[in-house]
Amino acid sequence: MAQKPSIPKGTRDFSPSEMAKRNYIFDTIKGVFKLFGFQQIETPAMENLSTLMGKYGEEGDKLLFKILNSGDYLSNINPVEINQSNSSKLTSKISEKGLRYDLTVPFARYVVQYQNDIVFPFKRYQIQPVWRADRPQKGRYREFYQCDVDVIGSDSLMNEVELIQIVDQVYQKLGIKVVVKINNRKILAGIAETIGEAERIVDITVAIDKLDKIGLEKVNEELLQNGIPVDAVNQLQPILQLSGNNDEKLMQIENVIANSSIGMKGISEMRYVLGILKALSLETEIELDLTLARGLNYYTGAIFEVKSKEVQIGSITGGGRYDDLTGIFGLQGVSGVGISFGADRIYDVMSQLNLFPEDATTTTQLLFVNFGEKEQLYCLPILSQLRSAGISCEMYPDADKIKKQMNYANRKGVKYVAIIGENEMNNGKVTIKNMETGEQKMVNSNGLNSLFN
Fold this sequence. Notes:
This protein is an alpha+beta fold. The protein is 42% helix and 19% strand.
């Protein structure tokens, strides 16, 4: 007996109904991106490893899927090198390409490569899959989609404001109640400077970013284990336990880091962004969270995370300001800011809350029953007219028993079935059956459009 086929762990197949729901998410997000003047690009699934390696830290490099060179990739390798079991050295010789880890680094490569063709500020969006050789678990996959939107070539904080407006509109349209958590890496740098540990900002931010997940006690343990002095950890405690509204939090932290010029610049930026957002009266809650750090080290200014208020699933959107991402490819001083919507987590939230509209999974609106060749010829012009009017319809391909055709309609979720026999053809009529209620009525063949208006 042949072995049942399967797919790699951490990947998924999507059924027609699942794809219809996913496309509803993609179309909603894409529609908002377009409203704000963003243009779509795509980059290859695979990039040169020289483009990807070293951009995500040591752990990120380990999670890159490497692609073996085509042909006999071992032909030029000395057997001694193979026996040395030095996988890193060997990989560089047998693999020159890898699957993209995210959309941001390929975007930076794209900007540098096409800098003379791009109109700056460049407002781009990109909706494509990425791959990570991570350990699969609930809500974490090896292949998943990102929906990125970035503005590059502008220092203006209005870009941060606009991105939060995009978040507000996307989640209003999807019906998900969210909170936008916002912080600024300059404030975090100011905190590290104030407690005398400016050189340890990465260790500090990585630890405090876990506050929601592991709690204050565990965060303090991790800071101490990473060599942060006890006095410095003690100075962090009031900051980790700030309370009040956004303005009150800013005033409290300003008193703490008043002697840090970089920290005060972060506060100034945050006041500006929050002030404009308050004037816009957005539906979405905006919360200043000074423990928000985000793991990627290339963020230099504002950072964002969006979480569902009703489902515990982690962040469903995130991003921030990066001052010199293109510098890694030789184009210095080009600032940008962007966010990424996690389509897979958004899908999980919407499924759990039953937020997909009923018509999101509808493919065929009207099915024509097939009684034979004569009826087929009568139906075909009607089908063409309906499709020209934007109505999704089909005719069952075979003149099978009507019970079988009705069962097909039910299983596919078709709401209306058109029945055309001898009587209908002689009178220019169509019998329409509502598959949900069982009601049947006869209408003029040229009046079917009214069913769907």
